[in-house]
Amino acid sequence: MLNYSVLDLATVVEGHSIADTYHRSLEIAKQAEELGYTRYWFAEHHNMMNVASSATSVLIGYIAGNTEKIRVGSGGIMLPNHAPLIIAEQFGTLATLYPNRIDLGLGRAPGTDQVTAKAIRGENMNTPHYFPHDVKSLLTFFSADNQHAAVRSIPGEGVDIPIWILGSSTDSAHLAAAMGLPYAFASHFAPTYLKAAIEIYRNNFKPSQYLQKPYVMACVNVVAADTDEEAEYLSTSVKQFFMGVITGKRQLLQPPVKDMNTIWNGIEKDHIMGMLAYAFIGGPEKLSRELQEFADETGIDEIMATSHIFDHKARLKSYRLFAEAVHKSSFAKV
Questions:
Q1: Which of 52, 104, 323, 333 is least enclosed, having the fewest CB within 10 Å?
Q2: Residue 55 neighbours by CB under 8 Å, 6+ apart
Q3: Structural domain total, the chain
Q4: At what angle do helices 266-275 and 236-247 cross, to 10 degrees?
Q5: How far is CA 163 from CA 31, 114, 205, 248, 280, in A?
Q6: What residues contact 15, with CB distance under 8 A and at least 6 apart?
Q7: Rounded distance, CA 151 to CA 111, Å?
Q8: Containing domain of residue 123, as a range?
């Protein structure tokens, strides 16, 4: 069966605090564990009033420390924002505390605007160009063979921490293939290059000590409800969320509305619906059918759902219905 997981941006909902957001994330993670989800990831973002996952490794520890078996990790750590040694030490600590449960997904984007990126990186604004080198440095720090080096990661050295390459373009596919690492694609906001990136990754994959054959995960938006109509209504919150992304006018996650035409214009609608090309919005039957088509078309090994739903109970229900849809389908994998 296709593996299924959760991506959490720690989205802050209108009328609720950041503390509420974290507590709700834990409730979702506990339910995900009960429902057989494989992993629960947080994404590093900065300077966004509606996204509270900036201290990603801290949130990973919070979730891992209050669950028992679900894997917890980053989707991802924006590596150019950090020295590889610091990430090795942080995740080495996490993996020591929670053995065989920590994942480290890595991205090269800043996870924020350029002004904030400069505040994070100082004068090191060209660090994305060193991304492949920094990934190799991380792998070295985690290796037991590094014990005689002048610089070591303590803890971290010799600890089993799966490293993933994340991407929203074809560049990352080449890197993941060349290094023989699992690949996660951000089709929840950048669907354009999904199929091309998967093809490049599979065609160029080189087996490594970390992975013997390609492993692809796609992240998608999911809004599931009892009926298609209810799901469409609930999905207006994520559409408003993306309105903030494309206009730069961010706000806390808004309640659903009856008619998005009162909020967006034609150009904005086209842009947002393009970003939501791989969004699964509907009742159980529609969800199962579209998930089956997507999995058959892409041959992915794992699907990761992210759900920007205003009402917390509706969000919990959406993740439950998504798990049920996966279980009811017979997904074909390449």
A1: 333
A2: none
A3: 1
A4: 110
A5: 25, 26, 15, 32, 28
A6: 252
A7: 28
A8: 3-328
Alpha helix positions (H), 251-283: 266-275
Q: How many CB atoms lie within 10 A of CB 154?
A: 11
Place of tokens 């279980």: 327
H-type alpha helices, 166-223: 170-179, 194-204
What is d(CA 259, CA 225) in angstroms, rounded to the nearest whole number? Answer: 18
Residue 135: both structure tokens together: 């990934």
How does residue 200 score in pLDDT terms, banded at 50, 70 and 90?
Answer: very high
333 in any annotated domain? no
DSSP one-letter string for 71-126: EEEEEEEEGGGS-HHHHHHHHHHHHHHSTT-EEEEEE-S-SS-HHHHHHHHTT-TT
Give domain status of residue 51, yes or no: yes
- Residue 8, φ and ψ in degrees, nearest 5: -120, 125
What span, in angstroms and rounded, lies between the C-alpha atoms of 198 and 210?
19
So what's the pLDDT on residue 1?
A: 78
Instruction: Please name which of 139, 161, 46, 123 lies closest in space to residue 84, comparing C-alpha atoms.
Output: 139
Residue at 34 is within a domain:
yes
- The per-residue pLDDT for range 12-28, each reduced to its tens digit, is 999 999 999 999 999 99
In a domain, 90, yes or no: yes
**Cis previous bond, 182, omega within 30:** no
Element (H, E) at 280: strand 279-282
Whichever domain contains 238, its CATH number is 3.20.20.30
pLDDT tens sequence across 247-265? 989 999 999 999 999 999 9
